[in-house]
Amino acid sequence: MAAAASSTDRPGALDITQRLTEICGPPFARFAGPADEVAGRAARWVAVPGSPHAAAEVLRLAARHDLTVVPRGAGTKIDWGAAPEQVDILLDTGRLAGIGHQPVGAPVAEVGAGTPLRAVQATLERTGQRLAVDAPSPGATVGGVLAAGEAGPLRHRHGAPCDQLVGLRYLTAEGELVSAGGGVPGLDLARLLCGSQGALGVLVSATLRVQPVPASRLWVSRPVWTPLEVHDLVRAILAARLDPAAIELDLPGDARPRPRIRPDDPAAAARARHPSMAGRARVPSRAGSLVVLLEGGPADAVERAERLVALLDGEATVTHSPPPWWRRYPFAPGDTALRIEVPITDLHAAVYALRDAAGAPVPVRGSAGLGVVHAALPGSLPADRVASILAAVRGVLLARKGRCVVLSAPPTVRRAVDLWGELTGLPRLRAAKAHLDPHHRLAPGRLPGGG
Fold first, then answer.
1. What b/e readout covers 162-175, taking b as 16+ CB neighbours within 10 angstroms?
2. Of 19-23, 112-116, 150-154, 266-270, where does mean pLDDT reach its minimum?
3. Would you say residue 34 has pLDDT above 50?
4. Which of 2, 8, 114, 118 is deepest in the core (most CB within 10 A)?
């Protein structure tokens, strides 16, 4: 990006600001402020276009001046992933919002990328419908959820939001508006924008499947102490064919000496003798939780809940509301946030590997029924310590066809560690980047491998 000035004080900066103002309107174009950054990389301008046409004009202006562009929704995950090499224009999608008109009861809804997810759900609920999308980030936009590849507990039954796409409209780096789905080819390519952090295109709108709001929702909770116990319980739940909407796990990170095993509890004694427990003298100071969400008709949901309670040896409880940690990540700002993906049969091995590498239990939370969980390492850990933990965990996961990704981290850690690990889909991502953004103007460096 040699042609781009490195400072807004250089000649031409005011001309670009004036042009952005003409495109977006006086209140919606400005020099960037201290909070306008992407994973620690400061932006130069902020543009908030009011239509797809205006967003395309911003991209064409950037192309003429060889400027980089990074899309931003609500900014709830703006620190996820790699820092871009450069952020000239932060393209805010907040005005690309709204829900397209559909007949009442239609099986799909077209939603502007800048629309907050909770606003979509509130609108659909008035007609007894919903998106089966429950991303944890409060205030997240639909476009932000898709661009970050974010999913919540409902992914167990309904798949991730990207799996529910039936259509997508996006802008290429050259400002071309592309429509995919709805009988138009190209949806497979468009799906690559999911999880791309804005590095392949600027999302304009998404058409997603809609479903009726369930008549009843019940949460069945059971305390758990060890990852091996979770493994056994998840296998039993899945084998029982109870059609759960979600199976979520919460394991705390604090630790104390292991509680004594009752002589009349042979199952607990057997778990304690399992080879995977060797050398582990510390367990959480409070029990973790395995929680199953059941949705459906009132009588059906109650019947399945009763069967599940019986399956869980009477230690389970049934409630009409989720636990406080439901749809919440285990990490806080400043932590090193990890996402672990592994076959469910090996989830316990991954959690044990993380504990062993860290030297203590680590907070873990996520979809135990799918083997997709998040974990948190303290932000105070030195970068070399984080790197050694990642190497150990990835070594265990490699043989199990799993992976561990660093979602966000303090700047010193982000610069020092490999955020992605092994990626089998890297050639396809690079091919998509070369096709959609050959000059690397969109969020350069945000894709795995520096794309």
1. bebbbbbbbbbbeb
2. 266-270
3. yes
4. 114
Rounded to an integer, what distance in angstroms lies between the CA atom of residue 188 and that of residue 309? 41
Both tokens of 189, joined, read: 């390519």
Please state the φ and ψ torsions of residue 193, each to the nearest 5 degrees.
-65, -25
Determine how many CB atoms are found less than 10 A away from the CB of residue 183: 6
Quote the radius of gyration of the chain (alpha carbons, Å).
23
**For residues 7 and 340, which has the higher predicted lDDT (pLDDT)?**
340
Structural tokens at position 346: 């090996």
d(CA 236, CA 164): 28
Distances (CA, A) of 114 to 142, 146, 276, 308, 397: 6, 11, 47, 40, 36
Q: Does an H or E element contain 364, and which?
A: strand 364-367
For 25, half-sphere exposure in the C-beta direction (CA atoms, 13 angstrom radius) is 9
Report the candidate in 148, 217, 173, 136 with the shortest Cα–Cα distance to residue 405: 148
CA geometry: angle 116, 379, 400, nearest 5 deg: 80
Please, are residues 420 and 447 in contact by the beta-carbon 8 Å criterion?
A: no
**Cα separations (Å) of 175 from 98, 304, 436?**
21, 51, 10
Q: In 378-449, where do the E strands start and end?
A: 403-408
Instruction: Quickly tell me which residue has 């929702």 as its tokens.
Output: 217
* Token output for 432: 């998509």
pLDDT digits (tens, 9 = 90+) for 296-349: 999 999 999 999 999 998 689 999 999 999 999 999 999 999 999 999 999 999
Q: What is the pTM of this model?
A: 0.89
